[in-house]
Design a protein that fits this description.
The protein is mainly α. It starts with a helix and ends in a 7-residue tail after the last helix.
Length: 193
Amino acid sequence: RLDDAERYFGNALRRSSGEDDAEMQAAALLGLVSVNRARGDFAAARGARNRAAQFIRTLPPEHTTHVSLAFETGLLDAADGSCSDAKVRLQQALTLFQRTKRRQADQIVSLSELSRCELQTGQLERAASRASEATALARKFALPDQPSYWLGLALLAQVDVEQVLGHSAKAKELAVEALSQLIPTVGADHPLL
């Protein structure tokens, strides 16, 4: 999947560079940030992020790519172990997502990742709150009787919190529910599992 995504975003970047389209170049580069982050190639992800930021600076401040840049930067910082930077960027993105009442999936990802960062920085109450909020939002938007990747992701954040709190029975219960959401949507061999 990552190879396909990389080809898609690489092609979009090549096409948009010939058309001098800053918005498309920024979107393609943000896609490459995500691909490289998922691969663990943080240097390549940061390079793509820096190039995207150059294009995004030329766009009006209200353009949606500004929040996408904050979101992707936060996820990259979290993946690279810089939780304090990640919390700032993810909170910035989350605030904008919530204000516009859009991008619920990205809100769920932001809340889940914020929960993990709060755990890593010892903020257990905040971690629990973020994870619960992510799960509540995911449940609200999940289709009835359909597995949901987003719900599974949020539940995994809650599992992490419950494990740290020493609530092994609750963690196991949530893990079973998370797997029931994730296996049908991404498969048993997905890196989250």
